[in-house]
Amino acid sequence: MRVMLVEDDPLLGEGVVEVLRRENITPEWLGEGEGVCEALAHSAFDALILDVGLPDIDGFEVLKRLREAQCQIPVLMLTARDGVEDRIRGLDGGCDDYLVKPFDSGELLARLRALVRRSAGRASPQVTHGLLSLDPAAHEVRLAGELVPLGRREHDLLAYLMTHPGQVFSRNQLVEVLYGWDAEVESNVIEVHVHHLRRKFGSRVVATVRHVGYRMGETG
């Protein structure tokens, strides 16, 4: 699971990041609201933990911009204010759940998992590319109707390329998408995943753009 955290309090942010990592959840932490929409447009996340009280624009405005941009990522809002009005405002604005500070880390994780489960249960349109079809809800990829078993990172890489057709991504960008911005991985990890995908779907499924990176290729 990959989660974006938007929280300006350094102590709380560090604590949440540590809790997520202990549960094998990959976090990306931002301290301001500006830039959240752009970050979500360029990288795939399973959920967003969004603080209401941010130093530039508040969480309600971030949420408003996301929903206006048709971004349907599950959102868990954090706030130090326990007023009913704030909860109503957040829920009416499109947040999926609300957690008041201070909170227990176990409750945070439980609510986060519940959000992702509910999101996975929503009807998701299938993505097709040539002979490939991707079912985001089932995490399945088929080639000419036949289910092709994939490892988690292989699936995530192929799904990301399929949902961003025509776009070219550098190795570093793809590492960030799959593992998080501060992950320590082998220098050839993306090349290894690309090799596995080409072996399963054909040599042209992922196209190499020389000196730049990779993009979705052809499948017939």
TrEMBL record:
Keyword hit for Plastid: no
CDD domains registered for this protein in UniProt: REC_OmpR_PmrA-like, trans_reg_C
UniProt modified residues of type 4-aspartylphosphate: D51
Coiled coil: none
Pfam families tied to this protein: Response_reg, Trans_reg_C
GO CC, one annotated term: cytosol
Domain OmpR/PhoB-type: 124-218
Example of a GO biological process term: regulation of DNA-templated transcription
SUPFAM superfamilies in the cross-refs: C-terminal effector domain of the bipartite response regulators, CheY-like
Keyword Signal: no
Positions of the DNA-binding region: 124-218
Keywords for the protein's UniProt record, in alphabetical order: Cytoplasm, DNA-binding, Phosphoprotein, Transcription, Transcription regulation, Two-component regulatory system
Cellular location(s): Cytoplasm
Domain (Response regulatory): residue spans on this chain: 2-116
Family annotation (InterPro entries): CheY-like_superfamily (IPR011006), OmpR/PhoB-type_DNA-bd (IPR001867), Sig_transdc_resp-reg_C-effctor (IPR016032), Sig_transdc_resp-reg_receiver (IPR001789), WalR-like (IPR039420), WH-like_DNA-bd_sf (IPR036388)
Protein name listed in UniProt: Response regulator transcription factor
Native organism taxonomy: Bacteria, Pseudomonadati, Pseudomonadota, Gammaproteobacteria, Oceanospirillales
